[in-house]
Design goal:
Layout: E1 13-16, H1 23-32, E2 35-38, H2 40-58, H3 83-94, E3 98-101, H4 104-118, H5 127-138, E4 142-143, E5 146-148, H6 157-167, E6 172-174, E7 180-182, H7 183-189, H8 201-206, H9 210-240, H10 250-254, H11 259-272, H12 276-280, H13 293-296, H14 298-320, E8 328-329, E9 335-336, H15 344-372, H16 395-411, H17 433-464, H18 472-482, H19 495-507, H20 509-518
Parallel strand pairs: 1-2
Antiparallel strand pairs: 3-5, 4-6, 6-7, 8-9
């Protein structure tokens, strides 16, 4: 995961237009500080739809979001002289978040996604509102958004309102180097002016699923690497625990044709190719009939995880292609109320992924535990200790894993099954998608740590199998670990060693080491 603040200068420009932004665009803006421009086609579409809103603003018939109050207060018609105040009041009142600051990358992802919807021409805002959003992103000014405030319905209201607050020159922002400054001061320092919002614009800035979607996109990006790391860790454990690779054969996987399972098994077969350790027990003297489930069924679990991720990816892609607002300006010029802001589609897959993350971590912890038990580790010292009794080896590293796995199981409890009615029962069913996204981010951090401990433990075990040598691919992973952490020996301060391997896991270095031998893993 990226640092909460960055000193990067923009090295890439993302153009926002009529076509949806891509996963790569979101990551570039969120994590790599890419600058943002707006296409001429998008600005023309925005100008055209604004004409319709301005016509409705002059109509004596009340139109929700244009000339009325909001939510349960939508019954009041607001006269023209109060509408600027209406928009400002909407943003101020809805910027009611609380708790810790939300990570910079999440806020930037959310901003880009809201800007993408604004650029569709379906929200009725003026072009200068889009330009102000793009300028904030390009200048690296990130509004301060707080942990609590979104119910995942009527959009991520409070988080998006805190962004809009900065747009009108209120609230606080963090600069590119992480300094906290009042928004008005930061805007002035960068040659920017606050926006005075007109009819419909306040609502358009806050009525979307962009917060939960941005976190889904970032989570899927992280899981792409973590799934490959899970296969690497599992292969190292199978090898170190004298397991067999025969169960990963393609014809056996084809008997149950789940695509993710086939991909995971193929990865493990590649990773274990040419292992002298695996070859050493392919003899008639081997008395092991079947490996434990945590070894033998690794592709089935990791494969099911992949297939769930694939479903979540499809949902995310559909959501990226969506223009979510209420009311919305249709292609034929109507301004219609709708329920597209409800976060259920995104909330469900965020919860599905939290279940996947918890189970991947659970099976990883079980493999680590097998290494530490002399009754199950096939000839290695208890806890992989140098001198058991004097040394404790990796005993407490497994405790750390177990503590994380226990928390991941709690985080796997779905947020989307909960609903607390709000807004005087007008908003009587909500998705809690923002909450699902927040707990998934914590879960992905936990999975990264659990897999890192498995890799650290398996690397130690593989070296304790000397003079037998591991497969070239797993040996490359061990060598990468050894660049940061010393090999087997007497007990050392273990926490920094775990932290070092966590950093290797996050950076992609462990996956890159394996793929330097195997080629790209699935």
């Amino acid at each position: 995961m990226a640092n909460p603040h960055t000193t990067l200068q923009p090295t890439r420009v993302v153009s926002v237009g009529l076509n949806p932004v891509s996963f790569a665009d979101v990551v570039a803006v969120a994590r790599d500080d890419a600058a943002v421009t707006l296409s001429d086609e998008a600005m023309a579409a925005v100008s055209a739809s604004r004409v319709r809103i301005e016509a409705l603003a002059e109509d004596p018939t009340p139109v929700y979001g244009v000339s009325t109050g909001f939510g349960a207060l939508a019954t009041r018609h607001i006269p023209p002289q109060l509408r600027t105040q209406l928009q400002r009041s909407l943003i101020r009142s809805h910027a009611a978040g609380s708790g810790e600051e939300v990570e910079r990358e999440v806020v930037r992802a959310m901003m880009l996604l809201r800007l993408s919807t604004l650029a569709s021409g379906r929200t009725g805002v003026r072009p200068e509102v889009l330009q102000a959003y793009a300028d904030l992103l390009t200048e690296g000014l990130t509004p301060v958004v707080y942990e609590y405030g979104s119910l995942g319905c009527s959009g991520d209201l409070a988080p998006l309102a805190h962004v809009a607050l900065a747009l009108i020159g209120e609230g606080n922002v963090r600069t590119r180097d992480g300094a906290l400054r009042p928004a008005a001061e930061a805007l002035a320092a960068h040659g920017l002016s606050p926006v005075v919002l007109a009819e419909k614009e306040g609502l358009a800035l806050i009525n979307g699923t962009d917060g939960m979607l941005g976190q889904l996109v970032l989570a899927l990006t992280d899981l792409d690497a973590l799934l490959r790391l899970a296969d690497i860790a599992a292969a190292m454990s199978v090898e170190g625990l004298l397991g067999t690779e025969r169960v990963f054969a393609a014809d056996l996987q084809a008997l149950r044709p789940h695509p993710g399972q086939a991909a995971a098994a193929a990865n493990m077969t590649k990773l274990l190719a040419d292992s002298a350790i695996v070859a050493s027990h392919k003899t008639d003297n081997c008395t092991v009939v079947q490996d434990a489930y945590s070894l033998r069924c690794a592709p089935q679990v990791a494969g099911a995880a992949r297939d769930t991720v694939e479903h979540a990816l499809q949902v995310a892609q559909r959501e990226l292609a969506s223009a979510i607002d209420n009311p919305v300006v249709t292609l034929d010029g109507r301004v219609e109320s709708n329920g597209n802001f409800h976060g259920a589609p995104v909330a469900y897959v965020l919860d599905f992924l939290a279940i996947v993350v918890a189970d991947l971590a659970s099976i990883s912890e079980r493999r680590t535990d097998r290494f530490l038990d002399p009754a199950r580790n096939h000839g290695l010292n208890a806890f992989l200790a140098d001198d058991p009794g004097v040394d404790s080896g990796h005993m407490i590293a497994q405790y750390t894993q177990a503590g994380i796995v226990s928390e991941l199981k709690r985080l796997a409890t779905p947020a989307s099954v909960d609903s607390i009615p709000s807004s005087a029962m007008q908003e009587d069913h909500v998705s809690m998608g923002w909450s699902a996204a927040r707990k998934l981010r914590r879960a992905i951090d936990g999975l990264t740590r659990v897999l890192a401990v498995e890799v650290l433990t398996a690397a130690r075990a593989l070296q304790l199998r000397a003079p037998l040598t591991p497969a070239p691919a797993t040996a490359a992973v061990v060598a990468t670990v050894r660049e940061q952490v010393a090999g087997p020996g007497t007990d050392r301060y273990l926490s920094p060693e775990i932290a070092a391997v966590v950093d290797l896991a996050r950076s992609g270095a462990l996956v890159a080491a394996a793929e330097s031998v195997t080629g790209a893993l699935s």
